[in-house]
Amino acid sequence: MTKDVTLKIEINRLFEVASKEDRNTIEIFANLVTKLPNFERLSPVGEMELTVNFLDPILSPIFHCPDNNKHLMWLNRKDENTAIFRPDAATVAIQQKTDTVTLGYVEVKPPDFESSPELAFMDLVRLGTFSRRLMLRKNNRKVIVVQCIGYHMVFYLVSAFTEEITQLAEILSVDVPKEIGQIGCLLQKVDDFKRLSLLYEHQIETRYKISRALEEEDAALPIDAINPKRRKQKIPSFSLA
Question: Per the UniProt record, which residue ranges are transmembrane (predicted)?
Fold first, then answer.
């Protein structure tokens, strides 16, 4: 019996006796054991492989909850809150077959974008633009978005700081393991994953307060109006506790 098989058996045993909140986190580790290679790849990893084998194993247990009618959808298509732009993924609530409410967005770039802070910043601007329009349609004005650049994953909570100010606050960052032997590094994130799952379950509203996207004169600027040379400033930390 290989080490991988033994590890899967142990994880399954934990899953059987775990609470609902713990099961989501245990599923992350089970997915990674199934998807990750036995050694770190030296050849470049493209966006599709990065998404399927490295990012989705972590994101799905947190955001994909069919029992609660919440889904993580890798669609790369626009919706009514994103104008002409196409986020790589969206979290949505599907209450009926024809009734879909967006809950948040995900942007992904392959590892070679790590050397381009300008492009990384533009991705963050896109997320900020999408999420502000979406946030204004929720009564509690809260949205969770995710930026993934290579193996680095950052979760943000977008909320109304005041009536005029929207806050994009980093609530969790994760370095995704590149091979099975690195999975143990995520043990220190277990409590963070659980708090993030609870935040998503209880604080992210599954209904719009109005039927169409709110149009405001002070809505976020179009992407081409943002200076791409501007560097991303340090975002204040936000505790989920």
Answer: 143-162
